[in-house]
Amino acid sequence: MQNSKFKIQNRDRLFCILTFIFCIYGLAACSLPSLEPQQCSEARLAAKQFYSFHFGNDMTPSAENLKARERFLTSELYGSLANPNGKTDYFTKADEYPKTFKMGTCESAGPDRATLQVQVYWQEERGSRKETTQREVLVDVVKKNDRWLINNVAEARTK
Does pTM surpass 0.85? Predict the structure, then answer.
């Protein structure tokens, strides 16, 4: 009797282990397909890396801050921003710098060009509640020498 009970326990353990292995393999093998073009995925990653760096550092326009961002920018954009004036941040189009951002939609204009929507957010305390304000900028990203670089940032048109 004990021997048959031991066999049943072993069979149940084996079943649990195999079920676990199949579940893990199934989760690893099944992934959701990307519904956007490859260039959008690549451009989005580059823009997200830039904006993460930008928001994580001093956003005040200065030659020093621009130099720190040079690796993310085309030489044309870098050259046009070389003499910062005022306190408006070119990359968020704001005088009062937002607190966070989120990547939005992407439109591709070819294998080496994409336009990304970047949503920027401010949060203000108004009495006992917090109010969030959102604005959007459109970021043109181009592929040069196998690298995706920011080429232009424009304010999004409101509908």
Answer: no
